[in-house]
Write a structure and sequence with these properties.
The chain is α/β, with parallel strands linked by helices. It is built from five helices and six strands; from the N terminus they run ββββαβααβαα.
Length: 165
Amino acid sequence: MELPGFFRPTKEWDLVAVRGRNLIAVIKAKSQVGPSFGNNFNNRTEEAMGSALDLWTAFREQVYLDSPQPFLGYFFMLEDCQASNRPVGVREPHFEVMPEFVDASYTKRYEIFCRKLVLERHYTSSAFITSTSEQGLKGDYSTPADDLSVDRFAKFLVAHVKAFA
């Protein structure tokens, strides 16, 4: 599951698909449960962006040889609880934050984040799901946004992998 990086020797990913000497797909899966949503949100966002930058820079430098552009996926699951769903204030001592973050819950912030990862082409696709502790044990989850659904993520992944089969 390790791939070489550009800014570091290697990075461990959750799923790596290689065919011959071609890197086809790479997926990072993360989750978060309470109670420290604030600190963990910042850590998760920085890690996801840094991992993407490292992989795409290594790709540009042909670390993965002549591989076609791989599918890079980000899959995130958040605990669905009162603390993750209540509005969170922001500090604006010098400049205003972007309006979508004002009074946004951590659930909304993660939705925005996952969407922006794809919008800015850091990741090919992103999935975002939530689940309570009880639902998660049963495999039940919710999808806060249709464009970040597991089904859509899987369709993009399968289409990409099929193109190189």
